[in-house]
Design a protein that fits this description.
Layout (H helix, E strand, L loop, with lengths): L3 E7 L6 H7 L5 E6 L6 H7 L3 E4 L6 H11 L4 E4 L4 E3 L1 H13 L4 E10 L2 E2 L8 E8 L3 E3 L8 E3 L3 E13 L2 H21 L6 H18 L6 H34 L2
Parallel strand pairs: 1-2, 1-4, 2-3, 6-11
Antiparallel strand pairs: 4-8, 5-11, 6-7, 6-8, 9-10
Helix pairs in contact: 5-7, 6-7
Length: 256
Amino acid sequence: MPRLSVIVITKNEILNIGDCLRSVAFADEVVVLDSGSTDGTVDLARSLGATVTQSADWPGYGPQKNRALAAASGDWVFSIDADEQVTPELAAQLREAMARGSFDAYMVNRFSNFCGRYMEHSGWYPDRVLRLFRRGTARFSDDIVHERVIADGKVGRLSGKLLHNSMPHFESVLGKLDRYSTAGAQALHARGKKGSFSQALLHGWWAFMRTYVLKLGFLDGQLGLALAISNAEGTYYRYLKLWLMQRKPAASGSQR
C-alpha cells in the first residue's frame, strides 16, 4: 500500500487542530508546519502523533504550504487546513484511490460551515478542491492568499466530503473578512493592480449578485442572504483597501 503524508500549516489553531488531526489518524505521516503558535497548538499536535516544525517567518499561504510539502516523505500527499476534517467516507475513498493509482491527483468536495450551518448552495457546495496528489507531481501556487494546488498529471474526483469549519460563528466571519481582505489587497497591489472607490462598490455589488442569485444563495434561506452580504463586504473591503494603499503617498505628502 502506498504511504500517505498529510500536511497542514497552523498558527494558534488550538480550537481546530485536535479534530483535524484525529480525522486523518489513518495517514502514515502527519506533518505540521507552525508559524509561531502561542496557544498550545504545537503541544497538542505532537501529542496526537504529528511531526511538528516551526518557521520564523510568514511568506504567505502558498509558499508556506510548499515548505510543508517539502517535509513530506510519503508516496502520496493530502493537504488539509486546520479547520477541516476528513469524513470516514472520504478517508475510505482516499485509501482506495491511492491503491488504484488511476490518477495522479484527486479533487474532493469541501462542505463549508457558515455560522453553524453547512451551506448547500451560494457557491459553497460542491466546492471542489484538489487535495490528494502523488508526491513530486504537484505543488502549491505562490499566492499569498487563496493558494491552489497545481498538478501536472491526470486529475480525478472523489465524492466524499471534506468538512470545513471556516466560519462557525459570526466573530470568525468578521475576523476572516478583515484578514483576507487585507491579504487580497496586498496581493493585488503587488501585481500592480489599481483600485478606486467606484471599483470597490462595483466588485462588492457583483459579489452579492453572484452569491445570492447566480449561485442560488437564496435557497440557503436567511443565512444564504447573510453569506451573500458577507461576501459583498469582503470584496468591497479588498478593493477599498487597495485604493487606500495607493492613496497613502499622496496623503502623507499633503501633511508636510
